[in-house]
């Protein structure tokens, strides 16, 4: 049992980061990291899930769902900022857990983060496909439904059903294109992300600025629709479930922490990137939710492109904005996939460096200095998921995985303050243990409101992870007794 909770010292972590053979290129500043965070956050959550969650769970009160999720993210963001400044190593929450609460829980969170990054990229690719298909249709180019929709659909009432489609080809295409860009290099990827962030933030601001004059306040009544008699369908339980589902909208700020080993001054810049990106996006989300549900009655928003529907509902006065909205959504969703597909390989990279995954996962391209093998593996799996499955089922898996990761990070801050109070902390989470404890309560609370089917998938996923750990990772860990002693010093 003792072996399951062995920890990796901060000295070992820093020494490993400096190994020349496996080193990553330090090129990112505070602005790059902030834009990376915004790039990861503003995407499918605002362009797709806002409307769907309002239609199915909370109505106009989806605004309250966003606020609840933002509070949970703020607690987690403060904890991430402390860890990222103190342990500026690739691997994000996985690395933090390994240094504080032991190997088994580090494996659990590393395996769990796959739900956030890999499944997240797949779900965003489905949203991207919907907007691209709609955009091309405006120019008379029609992609057949058989090649632009998932062959399977899912609802909690009917379960899985076949749609008759073959594959969501645009989703597969964009995953392949982003994966190729990420293999080439971090600098090139960040440059593309910076451009996409400017484009989508501009479009979001335009929608808010011009859409507010078309708001019909009657659409906000009732602000909290009466519960249908089913838990989670409107009423306060619907707001809570909506918060859990649209928590997906906030993933991305934590992906900033996966690039710590590529930041020029991680102790100063990582907290700035995490907290600034979270603050900017929270304000934009609340504003968009208010305007969108004010323009369109919430029950009409169960569509793949709700922002575009909002523009159409405003009438001829906003038709000029329609194509810009779609272009912004396409650019925005592209940058989210870039950030998520950037983050996942670095989780695999960190786990492989620790011996918990096979060595080929930590190979770095000799020219581009990127983890090219794990990037291609991640892209291939994401392409299959995006090509075959609907955004709703994928998005709920992402939400529950992210919430679990955030809860562990918040708990880890409390543990580390008790066990290692002497460690230097360039950024300190305020009001410990109160704020981290509240972070655990809010995130776990949101998990409890997610549908049962999502919990079942999480349990199955984690069971698979345990099998891999006990058959491979536990015996090949660099902290195992047969490994060099200096890794445990």
What's the arrangement of secondary structure elements?
Layout: H1 10-17, H2 30-41, H3 44-58, H4 62-86, H5 93-100, H6 103-137, E1 152-155, E2 159-162, H7 169-184, H8 186-211, H9 235-245, H10 266-295, H11 306-314, H12 319-353, H13 372-388, H14 391-419, H15 434-448, H16 452-476
Antiparallel strand pairs: 1-2
Helix pairs in contact: 2-8, 2-10, 2-12, 3-9, 3-10, 4-9, 4-10, 4-14, 4-15, 5-6, 5-14, 6-7, 6-12, 6-13, 6-14, 6-16, 7-12, 7-13, 8-10, 8-12, 9-15, 11-12, 12-13, 14-15, 14-16
CATH topology of the domain at 2-114 and 185-314 and 390-488, by name, is: Amino acid/polyamine transporter I
Form type: globular
First CA to last CA: what distance? 20 Å
Helix and strand composition category: mainly alpha
Strand order of the largest sheet: 1-2
The arrangement of helices and strands along the chain is: HHHHHHEEHHHHHHHHHH
CATH architecture of the domain at 2-114 and 185-314 and 390-488: Up-down Bundle
Number of strands: 2
The biggest sheet, with number of strands, parallel, antiparallel or mixed sense and barrel status, is: 2 strands, antiparallel
Rg is 22 Å
Range of helix content: 55-70%
Q: Approximately what portion of the residues adopt beta-strand conformation? A: under 5%
**Mean pLDDT rating:** 83
